[in-house]
Design goal:
Fumarate Reductase Iron-sulfur Protein, Chain B, domain 2; 18 helices; 13 strands; binds flavin-adenine dinucleotide; single chain; alpha/beta; 3 domains; FAD/NAD(P)-binding domain; five-stranded parallel β-sheet; binds iron/sulfur cluster
Length: 494
């Protein structure tokens, strides 16, 4: 059915995405921050704001090329079931993105050039929530099986998307996961109050019901060797993420009370799952979060929920401007300041802070404060910091708990080293245009090859690597291409 043109929808209705619960309320519990209720009519009017602009720039903003105008129109017509089908055509797990995606599509929406963008992410989320509520999302086992066996190592969004696509092509898929429960960072990393874990579990159940096997508590490289995989499987996909922490080797780094974000956050996920966890919490503490990014924001929000006395989030870079600079026009991603959900709930943000040392003022072996300087940076043309002017020296920030969230340096090295795969200088696993590593039959996708990125990219890479593995095994593939479709070399070398 052709799409209906609704050119004046954006004049009739203001942008009103699904909101969040009030900060003062939500910070007192661990339920999802999102407002639980929305009604169909509200979402219909939001979908009506889509002007069907002819050249849907939103689709080029979406890394997996979701066919956004189609499902906007279907929601406008109240055909939610068909909208769900359109959504699943490009995205295996729309609730993963509908809840966590930073929605680059909205920045590139034509309306965003001089008005408020269509609330695309809210519409995506509403469609998939409706799908689960109505029981429309059911297992889709393949109608025929091949004799090929494929191993997927890692069960984050990349591994799960690869597994589901390969299984739908009829191959027999086993997912190996080091953790006790599958899901990767969707399960252990992203806080429960940002993405409730029953949403991962219902997808895992769908995958199990489609015939995918999960081998959890299995550390590949240690419990399973490359030789085991090569003897037991016709191809393997490494989707092991990029969780190798960056560290700060400063004086006092070995003091107690200084922790990596990715030790601290999964511990809280496990606590919420009812497991006994021994690690320290932020209760009653002065917390300093080092790192101004999203992982840092999740630490801030977690520390508040644990009852921290004070939380300061430190960024080495200056505060971004409120308005788009002239050299950053639409449809480029805006490089502007956006208050995070965590900062809405409280805490302090400090910018242009260069940390110099961790201090133990009372000599008990525990960190008490951070010593830093407030600086003005000079950058080169590539955006690299090259010089600084000290604005204020000897800045001291009280800290009983320091959480390091300054990014990741590619995948943890053990498995790539054990398997002898080539890596790029930034530590990521190198692959050719067919997404194969330097070892024949061993493919890789997701953060393991891109470096720490986004859920939406991981899903797209998982879809693409499945297509490449299918072609490697059978010489052709009917699986759809995804994020790398714009690369003409992509299909050439499979
Ligand atoms: C705290 C935090 C919050 C984030 N929030 C967001 C967000 O809001 N929105 C967003 O879009 N992105 C977010 N991201 C990024 C996003 O989670 C990742 O880009 C995405 O999960 C990458 O998917 P992946 O499948 O490549 O890897 P991962 O999700 O990291 O999964 C890799 C899996 O491989 C397993 N594994 C590793 N080594 C082995 C081994 N040797 N044997 C067996 N299993 C192994 C790991 O245990 C893990 O389960 C966040 C990241 C972090 C750290
Ligand atoms: S996956 Fe992300 S970028 Fe794509 S449509 Fe959904 S919110 Fe937008």
């Amino acid at each position: 059915m052709p799409r209906e043109n609704h050119p004046d929808g954006f004049l009739k209705h203001r942008r009103a995405p699904i909101g969040k619960r009030p900060p003062a309320v939500r910070v007192r519990d661990v339920d999802e921050v999102w407002a639980p209720d929305w009604d169909d009519e509200h979402l219909r009017t939001q979908a009506e704001r889509c002007v069907d602009c002819g050249v849907p720039t939103c689709m080029s903003g979406c890394p997996i090329g979701n066919i956004i105008p189609n499902w906007n129109d279907l929601v406008y017509r109240s055909d939610w079931k068909q909208a769900l089908e359109e959504l699943h055509a490009t995205n295996n797990f729309p609730e993963f993105t509908g809840y966590t995606c930073p929605a680059p599509c909205e920045d590139t929406c034509v309306l965003a050039a001089n008005d408020d963008a269509v609330a695309i992410k809210s519409i995506e989320r509403a469609i998939v929530d409706r799908g689960w509520e109505e029981g429309w999302i059911t297992p889709q086992p393949p109608t025929r099986r091949t004799d090929y066996h494929v191993a997927v190592v890692g069960s984050g969004p990349a591994g799960l998307a690869a597994a589901q696509q390969l299984n739908r092509a009829g191959h027999r898929v086993t997912v190996f996961e080091r953790d006790e429960t599958p899901g990767g960072l969707m399960q252990y990393g992203i806080p429960d109050f940002k993405f409730a874990k029953h949403r991962v579990e219902q997808r895992i159940q769908q995958l199990r019901d489609e015939g995918i096997r999960f081998a959890t508590n299995t550390d590949v490289g240690t419990d399973v060797t490359l030789d085991d995989l090569q003897r037991g499987f016709d191809a393997t996909c490494l989707a092991i993420g990029a969780q190798h922490h960056r560290d700060l080797t400063l004086p006092g780094r070995d003091l107690d009370g200084i922790r990596f974000a990715m030790d601290y956050l999964p511990e809280e996920n496990r606590r919420q799952a009812g497991q006994r966890v021994r690690g320290v919490t932020a209760e009653g503490k002065n917390v300093v979060v080092l790192g101004g990014g999203d992982t840092g924001a999740d630490c801030v929000a977690t520390a508040h929920r644990q009852g921290a006395r004070q939380v300061v989030q430190i960024s080495i870079n200056p505060r971004p401007p409120e308005d788009r600079p002239s050299d950053n026009p639409w449809p480029a991603q805006p490089q502007t300041y956006r208050k995070t959900y965590a900062q809405e709930e409280g805490g302090e943000e400090a910018f242009s802070i260069n940390t110099q040392a961790f201090l133990d003022t009372d000599g008990d072996g525990r960190v008490d404060a951070l010593q830093a300087e407030h600086v003005d940076w000079t950058y080169d043309r590539t955006g690299r910091r090259v010089d600084k002017t000290v604005v204020e020296s000897d800045v001291r920030i009280p800290a009983d708990l320091v959480l390091i969230a300054i990014g990741f340096a590619g995948p943890e090295p053990q498995l790539p080293e054990a398997f002898g795969v080539d890596r790029a200088p930034d530590g990521t696993i190198q692959t050719n245009d067919a997404m194969m590593t330097s070892v024949d039959g061993l493919f890789a996708a997701g953060d393991a090859t891109r470096g720490a990125s986004l859920v939406v990219w991981a899903i797209g890479e998982g879809r693409d690597v499945a297509r490449q593995i299918d072609r490697y095994l059978t010489g052709r593939s009917d699986l759809p291409a995804s994020v790398r479709t714009s690369n003409p070399a992509f299909d050439a070398r499979a």
